[in-house]
Known about the structure:
Low-confidence stretches: none
Number of strands: 5
Radius of gyration: 10 Å
Oligomer: single chain
Distance between the termini: 22 Å
Number of helices: 0
Strand content: over 45%
Order of helices and strands: EEEEE
Amino acid sequence: MGEKFYVIIKIxxxxxxxxxxxxxxxxDVFVALYLLPMGVTVGSKLxxxxxxxxxxx
Length: 57
């Protein structure tokens, strides 16, 4: 699985909604916040590879 880039578009309770960069709404996914790096907020940019997320702001 190759690397993908996401931006957080919404945080709702214990989940963050991510949108793949340069793709539309069809690429939206939601991920449990505990799987994401500390300090993420709406608008944070993430790099994902092998289901590990890295904050790239």
